[in-house]
Amino acid sequence: MFLIVVALPLAFFPLSEAAFIDVKLVVLSLGTLLIWVSGVPVDRQLAAPALALGVALALATVFGVDPAESLVGTVRLTGVVMLASTLVLVVVAPSLPDPLLARARVWMVRAAVVVAAIAVMEHLAPEALDVVARRESFLGATFGNPVLLAGFLAASIPAAFADGGGSRWRTIAVFAALGSGFAVIGERSAYLLPPAALIATWWFLRPPARRIAVAGAALVIALAVWTLLPTPGSEDADPSRVAGQFGTLGAERQRFAVWGAQIRAVADRPALGWGPSNEWSAFVSSGTPGQLRTAGRFWADAHNILIEVGVISGLLGIAAFLWLLSRLVPGVARAPRSRGWAAASAVTLAVYFLYEPLDVTLIPLMFLLAGAAAGGRAIVASSAAAWRRPARVATSIVLIAATCVAALSLVSASIEQWGRTHSGSSWAFERAWAVAPWRVSPAEALAIELAIDARAGDPEAGAEAREVVDRLVDAHPLSPGLRLLAADVELLLMNFPGTQAWIREHLEVFPSDVVRVPEKEPGTTLP
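The chain above was modelled as a monomer; its predicted structure follows.
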């Protein structure tokens, strides 16, 4: 439990290619495995719909457009490994004992204060964090993204209320720290989610009005102070940055464009969808040129959890997901007082996932908290049927395999990062790709490295670069980026007609894409 609530949000590994993501998948799968093998009973009411959703996701993976991509995922690592761990957490969470959840609540608040402090330090003195990770930005603390940080801080607000005791000064200190974290984020979610969290807290916990007033005042004052303070490198305050978040409808236009394209993607593959982690393929394949121009072509998430489920697993997955919600939501709504904080935190994250992307930390945390909120009463545990032990063994095997896949991905990402920071290291990209063949980024780096070597006078490297590209395109035929990578490789090899041919092939596969075939040679890389 400690691994999920504390280590998962705080984990980062600066020696990997994606320092704030790669290691989190290992922590998630390992933490889930440890909870599972500890023998926590499975809630029978949630087990059936969770199993149905798991089957739908497995079928979507096998029959999707890119099973290798579905295994882990390239952008946010929200593939099968993360989804399997999430489904296991939600079915055991109702049976977690109250003392353990009470400790988890305290851990969660302390972790939130720590990540808020990291974000503030990055805002005030970023050079102080260079000792930890020189090449990384901690604007999103250990989440790597300010929006994700906002989601976690908001989910921690109900947990900070739950003890019902503590001095007023402790309350002020905790909420001032959270407010400071929200303030330096600067994203619109940092202003929208705290009110949602406070409303959910009031609904489920009904804390004294004076305590809500004190906490809310500390939060608002911290937000205001940080907004009125000059930003680093500036002598003047910049209060307009708050208004700037709400003074334009650009983000809304982008989301509506993405939602429209992804709903069309569900219609294009209605039965089983595109498979986990194939949202980018779905978006570029199904979006209209206008939608791609409005939103940009790089949206790899629907930014709405229900649409996302439809994209990755089709109508079968949506049906199973709604079945799971029909069992889960009534339990959350009737959460006992001792678990009301978990219900409020889960609702806060649910609001977040109505308009923000899936994440390897926050999605498992939301379902863990929702499952825990639905427990605490007379939990219906699975009976001692003949299939119970084989089912536990099978689930253990799945989680062990998921942990191994996550660990191999981390090893691969670490080798890849070594190659990116040392010149002439094509061997590192080769090893990284061999360790985890489902990861695309080391092969992309290898192709570019070989093409550069060929341009420097090594003809064999050019042939190897083309071979790598061909293997990638054959293995991931609906990736919106790999044929453009091939075009870049041909451009580096000074074969402009080859560049044009690859882009034409890309547009045959993705006719709505906004990429165009260049008429004149642009240089060493495409514009």
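The chain is about 70% helix and 0% strand.
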